[in-house]
Amino acid sequence: MPKPILQTLIVEDDCDHAELLQIALSRLNDLEFEITRCMTCTEAVHELSASQFDLVFLDYWLDHGETGDMVLDEVQRSKSCIPVVVTSSADDIYLATTLTRAGASRYLCKRDLNTKLLSQTIREALQDSQASRRDHEDQTLAAETLDQLTPREREVAGLIAEGLLSKQIAGRLGCAEGTINLHRSHIMSKTGAQSVADVVRMVLMSNGKA
After folding, report:
1. Of residues 156, 189, 149, the one with CA closest to residue 170
2. 103: left (phi over 0), alpha (psi -120 to 50) or beta
3. The pLDDT value given to residue 25
4. 59: which strand partners?
5. Backbone phi and psi for residue 58, each to the nearest 5 degrees, phi listed first
6. How much is the pTM?
7. DSSP notation for 84-118
8. 206: which of 9, 17, 55, 142 fits an S-S bond (Cβ 3.0–4.6 Å)?
């Protein structure tokens, strides 16, 4: 069986470190990498907007005080779910936590590039990316399903998701309980929901809360 080829972007301004990373990647027996290298975040953002990548290695501290935040912001903005492994010479737990919150998949100290930790880090980053893509697809599907509803039906669906009963929703919206029950019937029919729990799940998923 042929090895999967991962389109990989390396953002690194130190040619020696970039070369060491490529050598380390070439030694992984079960994966193959097609490498694109950039020396600045501006170049990297251009590459990300022009090409499809499966994996990014990002040196966080670049020359002239430039950091990798621009690249992380671009990945977040594009919602592409590309796994970004941030590399740094500093073994800094605080920085690793901060960058993970900013959208990095993993943080890897450069001294660990030649260890089995590199393979483990890549696999975990790819797995996280697949899970994120599934969540994004589910969220998109839920949003598209709810788009079939009228504005009033969507409002009622949102209140259902808050746990309100028909009588309470009627009081909130200033209409008859029978009208709310009719809206509920339309919501179930249009979305294909089999239960109130399905409606709640759909609303939460569309809002990215499920």
Report:
1. 156
2. left
3. 94
4. 87
5. -125, 115
6. 0.73
7. EEEEESS--HHHHHHHHHTT-SEEEEGGGTTSHHH
8. 142
